[in-house]
Amino acid sequence: MKRFSLLLIMLLLLFAQTLFSQYSVQITKEFWSWQINGNELEGNLVAKLFLNGQALDTTDFVCTWYRNWNGPWEFYRNGFKAGRHGITAGAGYDVKAVVTQPGNPPFSVESQQYISAPPASQRDIFLLHSKLENQQPAFGNTIFFWAYPDWHEGKLVTVAADPEGRYFTNNDAIALRTVPNFRSDNQKFSIWVDDNLSKYYTNHQQVEMDPAINLFTSQYRTSTDNISIVVTLNGSSTTAAVEFLDPWSQDYPDPSYGYTVRNRGISAPFSPLTSGNNNLGFSTTHQGVFLNQEVASGVFYSVKASLIATINGAAAFFTGWNYDPNYIALQQVGSNPPGYDQKAVIFKQAGA
Predict the structure, then answer these.
(1) Does the predicted TM-score (pTM) go above 0.85?
(2) How far apart, in whole angstroms, are the C-alpha atoms of residue 207 and residue 209?
(3) What is the pLDDT along the chain (352 residues), one digit of tens a residue?
(4) Given the DSSP bridges, would you call strands 301-306 and 308-311 parallel, antiparallel or unpaired?
């Protein structure tokens, strides 16, 4: 009798688990972008299966796609990826993904979604280009761009003599990146600028497409080698409580974009410097520095030092910066963070 009761309880638990388990199908759009001529929005449709919000392995499941062009539903194709679609500007249709699994009882769950493209009046052409310090085209560079929400796939534009146009939907967000970051002519990526010169952008920064903007240009500048920061603290070899912020340091593998390494702009974290010579040259992640970088641009190098540090077990107090004004300049920007003295640093010439 106990064995029967235990079996009954197990069956009831299994029934309850099945009863309260919720399967769902999510239809997502991947790699969607406007054709070069701007007539169609095209990309892939993908169905994903979830159980109580957790994605499932779909090896043992079958997905069948149907579509409705303002009429009866018609079979489209099988597979969790429906293949590439093209939708004329201003048009759309219903799609349905039905996921099944053989068994007793048979399993079936579906999702329906209306897929559409904005009208032509809501998309505009934006020009993409890359220039060297002398404002000549940066031949050999490649521009990648991502459109929301498909941050995982980048389309590319090869830099030519003239800017190349791509269509985007107004007010949508895109992200831009230009490669290589450091060129054989010792120029490296500095900043993205728009043709209104009203905003500046880093690589991978999300940019809202504004009809008032027609051109985005990745600007390159000459980088200088043979630059170091030397930290000395009363002659001690102990690591000093001094830190450096380089907005252009290539040190962040971005998970949102396939872990490609990029810089982080003015939002980059400060990195601790060691006592002695800290090389910022071409062979490091800094890839040299820009000379005479204007603080007014909003993107600049910074140093900061702890006001109190422990040296050889004793408290040491920060008394100021020692530098040659022929090589660098320091500038106060805003208020100091608590416990630190922080300055913008402008490198003036090689050998600093």
Answers:
(1) no
(2) 6
(3) 444 444 444 444 444 444 446 889 999 888 788 888 889 988 889 999 999 889 999 998 999 999 998 889 999 999 999 888 889 999 999 999 999 987 777 789 999 999 999 999 998 888 999 999 999 999 999 998 877 766 656 678 889 899 989 888 888 888 888 888 889 999 999 989 888 766 778 888 888 888 888 899 999 999 999 888 887 765 554 455 789 999 999 889 988 777 888 888 888 999 998 877 889 999 999 999 999 988 887 889 999 999 988 777 778 888 888 888 999 999 999 899 999 999 999 999 876 6
(4) unpaired
Give me the amino acid identity at 125: I
Give residue 274's identity as a one-letter amino acid code.
T
